[in-house]
Amino acid sequence: MAGAGISTPSGIPDFRSPGSGLYSNLKQYNLPYPEAIFELTFFFQNPKPFFTLAKELYPGNFKPNMTHYFLRLLHDKGLLLRLYTQNIDGLERVSGIPASKLVEAHGTFASATCTVCLRACPGEDFWAAVLADRVPCCRVCTGIVKPDVVFFGEPLPERFLLHVVDFPVADLLLVLGTSLEVEPFASLSEYVRHSVPRVLINQAVVGTFAWQPRGRDVVQLGDVVHGVEKLVTLLGWTEEMQDLMRREREKLGAGKS
Ligand code: APR
Ligand code: ZN
């Protein structure tokens, strides 16, 4: 289970960290409250704040960090049952984790849909408008085009239902970089069997690890990359991790990560 905290080392702000989180830096949009930027009613009244934010989060500007590549290494080793992420930055895909192993529970910027006629809008058209500070409009009916990011109150993608088959059979749960504040995603942490170790790597003890801890919970507090590095060393995978990151970074070219 992953949240915005795994992407802050890549330079993308999370939502709730005091001061640095997105929700404390939306003053210029004079929103009624921070979460409004992800609410449909506000979006239809004034889509500009969301698209200004989208431009800041443009996927091309950021690269995966060690946390993403650790999850990719788990996949390469046949150990990743599924990665449930709340993140919309798409860095899990960029790190090479196949879509079949991903549940992007809060949607993704990878595709976009017209809010009027529901036609799919090609990603390049969408991003061309966003990067040119224009509100993307449907070529056919001129309705506003919204990326397939889940706004508050919208249903989660159907793939989220995979949790019904995944969590009961998982034999380890990793929870990385999330405040576990948003439902129904946060409750996933309760769905593994009580015999299954749950490992939280996060700046703070959050959610069920705070108010309903279990005997086999492990909490590694502090920076997520540091925590992942410790785990990789204990696993004896340091060399493999370095090789994988070197290969992937050559593929992606230089850039912030
Ligand atoms: N290392 C470890 N922990 C970190 C790091 C880091 N480098 N950076 C941030 N964190 C922690 C924060 O302390 C916080 O506990 O990650 C967590 C991030 O929490 P949020 O900002 O609330 O992000 P997230 O949990 O992903 O939010 C869930 O809220 O607004 C909605 O849809 C949005 O998907 C998002 C959802
Ligand atoms: Zn349309």
UniProtKB/TrEMBL annotation:
It comes from the Eukaryota. This is NAD-dependent protein deacetylase sirtuin-3, mitochondrial isoform X1.
